[in-house]
Design a protein that fits this description.
Elements: E1 8-9, E2 13-16, H1 23-30, H2 33-36, H3 45-62, E3 67-71, E4 77-84, E5 93-98, H4 107-123, E6 127-132, H5 137-145, E7 149-155, E8 164-171, H6 172-180
Antiparallel strand pairs: 1-2, 2-3, 3-4, 4-5, 6-8, 7-8
Length: about 180
């Protein structure tokens, strides 16, 4: 089985590795100022293409990267979300970024729950973190809904060096205890 056959499903969403058809929604997402305000700013199309290819290539090379989140009822692309650990990253992250039209629908915690379950079960991770800009109240709310707490203040590697980031997260044991309740 190819990694590209991987599918996680929630009640309303499908999480899967990227496909070429995801490029245009990703370019639109990367051009949205509100969406990109905590992700380094709007990306020119050529930079967004490189980012799309890097996220996609990580699946092929390392067997893990962010899933593309697809709304079951419409087939629409709603975001990128999932396990992520770039070189020199402060930990094993499950991150999320949802297109603006889908904000407030509960998609981030729903999909992140499935991705965290998968990361602990399939990747053997012992901890999941979420790197969050200090002023990103919405992502802190999602992290709290997942049972994560603020672990520390850290810094991301270049090109984001010099900007403080909050590292939220929890251990596998804490996640499993919470899920079993």
């Amino acid at each position: 089985m190819s990694i590209f056959d991987l599918r996680l499903e929630t009640e309303r969403l499908i999480l899967r590795p990227p496909q070429a058809a995801d490029l245009q929604p990703y370019l639109d997402f990367s051009a949205d100022e509100a969406v990109m305000s905590h992700l380094g700013g709007v990306q020119p199309r050529s930079v967004a293409w490189r980012s799309f290819c890097a996220l996609s290539g990580a699946w092929h090379l390392f067997g893990v990267s962010m899933f593309r989140v697809i709304e079951k009822s419409t087939g629409q692309w709603v975001g990128r979300l999932g396990p992520w650990q770039p070189l020199d990253w402060p930990g094993t992250e499950v991150g999320w970024s949802i297109r603006r039209q889908s904000w407030g629908l509960g998609y981030a915690p729903e999909a992140a729950t499935a991705a965290i379950d998968w990361a602990f079960a399939s990747l053997g991770w012992e901890e999941v973190i979420h790197t969050i800009a200090p002023d990103n109240v919405n992502s802190k709310t999602v992290a709290a809904k997942l049972g994560s707490t603020l672990l520390r203040i850290d810094e991301l590697p270049p090109p984001h060096a010099g900007k403080p980031v909050e590292v939220w997260g929890q251990s596998r044991a804490a996640w499993q205890a919470r899920r079993s309740r």
